[in-house]
Please model this.
Amino acid sequence: MLDIRRRTGWLFFSLMMAQVLLISAQVSTRSGAKLLSLVTFEAFSHVQQGTAGVVHGMRGAWGNYVALRGVRRQNETLQQQLATLQVELQQQRALAARTQRLDALLALRTQAALPTLAAQVIAGNPNPGMLTITINRGTSDGVQADMAVIAPAGVVGRVIGPAARHAARVQLIIDRNAAAGAMGEQTRAGGMVVGTEDNPPLHMELVSNLSELKVGENVVASGLDGIYPKGYLIGKVEKSERGSGLYRNVTVRPAVDFSSLEEVLVVLVPPRPAARDEGEK
Amino acid sequence: MKTAAVLAALGGALALQTTLSGIMVGGIVPFNLVLVAVVYLSLAYGPMTGMLAGTAGGLAQDALAGGIVGVGGLTKTLIGFLVGVLGAQFIVSNTLPRLLMFIAATFVHELLFKGLQALVAGRGFAPQYSALLVQALVNGTVGVTAFLLVERGPEAVQRRRVRRASFSKRRF
Model:
């Protein structure tokens, strides 16, 4: 009994010390335990693909067969909405054509469509303290670390390395360690959006007190971080108050509903070298 | 047999954690099933198994989450060891002491985890106690239910079979 206790004590001490050393090594080199992380992630991504398949199958069965009550009424409502939207679409097309002409007049370079890759969310955050998701695209599809991930509603986050062959981890923009260069859509007031654990989960920092960023204004990516493409929607200003120092206190409600995220788009543009250096620092 | 049970519990907890949090991506996930598995194994098998399970489960969770590997491993090793020692010293075979153990372990784990993360990543230490309380209660409920299912489940199934057999004899 005593022997076992002594052995347990030594083992406990050894395990704790080994992990302290592991953490210290990563902090001093500013990089993760890449091999351990990659091997675990590669192996577990197959399990996650399997469980995601089961969950999607069950959801599909429920959605396609069980939850079809009231579909006719819903269909009629949607038809009416479609008619209204078609009229609005015509108006928007006319507006877009006019904007293009104005763009040409101002000799502004039109933004080329970004190459994107559709991906499915196959798992959520394994640790309640970290807001990450796993997608079913990896290095074999051209996905690299620090590539931006977006959804139709706006910016989702960025790929954090190392990516597996058929899976990659995405750090959500609302994670407390995430940040993105941002600016107000109308006022063009620049700043940096960071994730927090508050509600709403985004703060916009480094916004000058002299700027007039207003509540309700859209916040878009500024592109200065070299990761997120310029102009993509991040969220909407929910609070904008004059701060005591140089900067305003700004909170932002994210545009993307992270609680129902199933499909995302990976922007297949590698980050600018400066951004990667900053990320590693 | 014990090793297989430990690995199955940890693997199952990790798979369930990622699958369920995938359904409610982004929001604060109100449970930590790997921690529940570590506390369960510590109470069921003692400090040695508890801390080894804590190390394996924590490192796997760290590696999957991305970021600094070892923070979760260290905290879960400590939790596994402490819960195992306390479980051996005190009588924790009833539901209430077990529930308290799961709740206390969740609080200690989260505070240690957030504290270490703040220390290593250089960010502020600001735990949200209301969210922590919810997570502790959910973890406690899941853990106690797991104990009840494992301990009383087979017995209940057996009792039901016997009752069904005697009922069918009476009818025919």
